[in-house]
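Hi W., the 1-O-phosphono-beta-D-fructofuranose complex you wanted:
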Amino acid sequence: MGDTRAASGTGQGPGLPPVITCREPGSFARGVMAERHPALIEQVREAFPYGPQQLRALDALLHEIAHGVVEPLGHGSPDRDLWLEWGREHIGRPWFDAPFLWAESYFYRRLLDAVGYFGEGPWQGIDPFAPFKRAELSGDTVEEELRALDDLAVVTAAERASALLDASLWGNRADLGFRGPAGAGEPASGTASGLVADDRAVLWGILPPGARGTVAVIADNTGRELIPDLVLVDHLLLHGHADRVVLHVKPGPYFVSDAMTADVVDCVRRLGQAPGEAGVIGGRIREAMGAGRLDLRAHAFFCAPFPYERMPDDLRAELGSGSLTILKGDLNYRRLVGDRLWPGTTSFADLTAYFPGPVAALRTLKSDVVVGLDPGVLEGLERSGRAWRTSGTHALVQVRP
Ligand SMILES: O=P(O)(O)OC[C@@]1(O)O[C@H](CO)[C@@H](O)[C@@H]1O
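Structure:
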């Protein structure tokens, strides 16, 4: 294990590549902070008939990001002291100077503060992203994707496993906060399949049929991502790749479309109400939940602004006791390897050696961070001149046994 260990913290360290901030003009991170977040505030503002208090707070947040310094949470916030501690180095300074991971996390926490999600009152517990999630779930694309499951009922278990892994992987592209640049929808270049790394053989080696251990799935987005995740989980249970799956979701709204318990409920219901194979799968998932073979967890750490290297002991023990942890999505990847400008060929195994037990990342590339690439693959991608790191056109399956 090289000195890349302990590298994924938020601080700077000797010999470590820089932590990503929003400071760099033209960078992806800056675009998120300067364009995506303000646009999101506008969308949330439009989606709800908020009162003057919420509208004022949203406008103030908009202004603060562009012109002010990072302010603390309101006095009534239950976790105000916690965030004062976590933001010691960033509160009172420009948003653009903070580490990208911290700033994004805190932005979502502040948005919840602005709309009164945790406050006493009528807006308590109202998910500001629910209208977007609901629209996606009832849309034609989900309908078509559910219908396509009928075709998989007739293929071999191994073919089905691989197709479901792909569906779960590329489902990560459907992120409601993600708006790629023009061209993001074109076929991937640089590699034939769009996969920049593909360790699926290692994954299935850890989880052969009949392996019967516990698999943890750290979920990312709801809707078009969570549905294929649940279908994959059903397959793992049905074919004995696992005899129990723990699905980790967020304890509250986060990064627009991140799944929380209410979203799992909606997705399971959506599956269960569908005709054909999707409905059968939905019924099995419900049964598995009832029998404790599919368990839900919503640990507070999943909304904390830290890399997984800082995960608390209870989570570490839980993940360490299973046969594999599958992490979904871009943010989980950034938290897994550290949100730094790593050279693309840095060893994935070294960076994740701290993780308690075998770990797999299934992620479409939607931010600058990527490691574990073969030098030839990296060279080809760089030569393509495309925004392959951030446009969601490429994906990876990386596994550390
Ligand atoms: O974790 P996900 O859902 O795959 O992706 C989340 C994400 O694409 O959204 C951000 C932009 O808002 C990126 O910085 C981030 O990594």
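The chain has 16 helices and seven strands.

W.
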